[in-house]
Specification:
The protein has no helices and 8 strands. It has an 8-stranded antiparallel barrel with strand order 1-2-3-4-5-6-7-8. By secondary structure, the protein is mainly beta. It is about 0% helix and about 60% strand.
């Protein structure tokens, strides 16, 4: 698998970094910059935006992310995904100020689009 294989859009399901394991759903868009590094953009729920950048090696994707919380503070963390295939990413994440006793979890499923060519 190559980093180019990961480019695309994914539906995500996850749980937060806390004892309650609050679940969430969203979307992840992966693209590449000019150096073939990953650019990530998450939308969690209806409107929480997160951005990140990272790298890929040996079917492991690592992304440093950040977002602005409801309290207007900037939150940062790292997400690590095992790329089970180019269509399924299985990961965990941690924020700097999250509960250190827990990891968030996330699974990503590629959104497939069928393009029909017309003659």
């Amino acid at each position: 698998m190559t980093v180019e294989d990961l480019v695309g859009e994914y539906n995500i399901i996850g749980s937060n970094q806390d004892e309650a394991s609050n679940n969430y759903k969203g979307k992840l868009v992966l693209s590449l910059d000019e150096n073939n590094r990953i650019i990530a953009m998450w939308t969690i729920g209806a409107d929480q935006k997160q951005t990140g950048s990272g790298f890929f090696k040996n079917n492991i994707l690592v992304i440093n992310f950040r977002y602005s919380g409801e309290d207007q503070n900037i939150y940062k963390g790292v997400a690590v995904y095992q790329c089970l295939s180019k269509d399924i990413l299985d990961g965990f994440w941690s924020e700097k100020h999250g509960n250190p006793l827990f990891l968030g979890e996330e699974r990503c499923f590629r959104i497939k689009t069928n393009v029909e060519l017309l003659d």
